[in-house]
Amino acid sequence: MAVVGAAGIFYLVTALVLRWPGYGLAPVDDRGPAHAAPSATPAPAPTPASTGRRRLPDWLVQAGLADVDPRELAMVTAALVAGGAAAGYLVFGAAVPALVLGICAGAAPIASYRVRLKERRGAAQEAWPRMIEEIRILTSSLGRSVPQALFEAGRRAPASLAPAFAAAQREWLLSTDFERTVAILKAGLADPTADAACETLLVAHEVGGTDLDRRLDALIEDRVLDVQGRKDARSKQAGVRFARRFVLLVPVGMALVGMTIGNGRAAYATPWGQAMVAVGIVCIVVCWVWAGRLLALPEEERVFYE
Predict the structure, then answer these.
(1) Do 63 and 116 contact (CB within 8 A), yes or no?
(2) How many Å is the maximal CA-CA distance in the chain?
(3) 3-state secondary structure the chain
(4) CA angle, corner 117, sides to 111 and 121, nearest 5?
(5) Is the CB of residue 274 less than 8 Å from the CB of residue 94?
(6) Which of 41, 68, 173, 292 is 20 to 30 A away from residue 255, measured at CA?
(7) Residue closest to 226 by CA, chosen among 130, 135, 305, 126
(8) How much of the chain, in percent, has pLDDT values that exceed 70?
(9) Cβ-count burial of 95 within 10 angstroms (0-12 exposed, 13-18 middle, 19+ buried)?
(10) How far apart are CA 140 and CA 212, in angstroms?
């Protein structure tokens, strides 16, 4: 069983993450796509699958995990699946609940990164109105150029945004190409508000004009309304979110208490007990995810990016 499980994980990781074809221990052609024959046909239009692959790096950047290789994430997930299954077998003494518990444990990195992503995104959403206001004052009242105002405001950005501003400023000092600088900043932030603000500043820098102050003021008003609306929605959901966490602990406590009463552990080992435990775990996870989707606030889509 251990060998079969290891082989299954190997084939899943190599097929889904490494894109290896076949059943061998190495890809059939490891020269990479750069050696493929050139084609005169135009590139195909983006598909939902390609959009999903493109969103994964954005998701890692927004969560502060830009340096994390998706393959490493897959390996950690596989290790947690194995560890969760082993722990489940020690607790329940049965294979089916252990397998279900292992699969649930494998989702822990994704859940942790989602929490981190929400925290970083919330901090960025609250910081951007102030930063845009500072850029507006620097460009209109103090006569700063658009790049200079952007980098001065970036020095006082939250710590989670500082690396992206530092990388963009290095690019500006080396090339003085503001379009490329903005592209690096947008890639480092991976944020819808950053996309809109950066594109507004890029157009103002290249085209010029006197309406930059008005455009930034409108963008500030829009961002402030969005932040306030999200804060009000989260405050109204506070009680429901607490109840969601509390209800998650009740079945776990009941299962642990049931093991200590009479022949509770032996009951878990019967086929009927295994089926009921597996169904219970699946129901808890499904209800938890469903409640999270019902409580989720709509997220903005990124614009003006490759």
Answers:
(1) yes
(2) 81
(3) CHHHHHHHHHHHHHHHCCCCCCCCCCCCCCCCHHHCCCCCCCCCCCCHHHHHHHHHHHHHHHCCCCCCCHHHHHHHHHHHHHHHHHHHHHHHCCHHHHHHHHHHHHCHHHHHHHHHHHHHHHHHHHHHHHHHHHHHHHHHCCCCCHHHHHHHHHHCCCCCCHHHHHHHHHHHHHHCCHHHHHHHHHHHHCCHHHHHHHHHHHHHHHHCCCCHHHHHHHHHHHHHHHHHHHHHHHHHCHHHHHHHHHHHHHHHHHHHHHHHCCCHHHHHHCHHHHHHHHHHHHHHHHHHHHHHHHHCCCCCCCCCCC
(4) 150
(5) yes
(6) 292
(7) 126
(8) 77
(9) middle
(10) 8
DSSP letter at 41 equals: S
In tens, the pLDDT along 29-50 reads: 444 433 433 333 443 444 444 4
Rounded Cα–Cα distance for residues 226 and 224 (Å): 5
Long-range CB contacts for residues 102-107, cutoff 8 Å, separation at least 24 = 104/281, 104/285, 105/80, 105/81, 106/77, 106/78, 106/80, 106/81, 107/77
Locate the domains of the chain by residue range: 2-21+60-106+237-295, 123-236
CA 119 to chain CA centroid, Å, is: 11
For the chain, what is the radius of gyration of the CA atoms? 25
CA–CA separation, 193 vs 34, rounded Å?
Answer: 35
Q: What residue type is 293 in one-letter code? A: R
For 87-139, write each residue's pLDDT tens digit. Answer: 877 777 777 777 887 888 887 777 777 777 777 777 878 888 888 888 888 88
Determine the Cα–Cα distance for residues 227 and 2; give it in Å rounded to an integer: 50
CA 118 to chain centre: 8
Helix (H) or strand (E) holding 59: helix 48-62
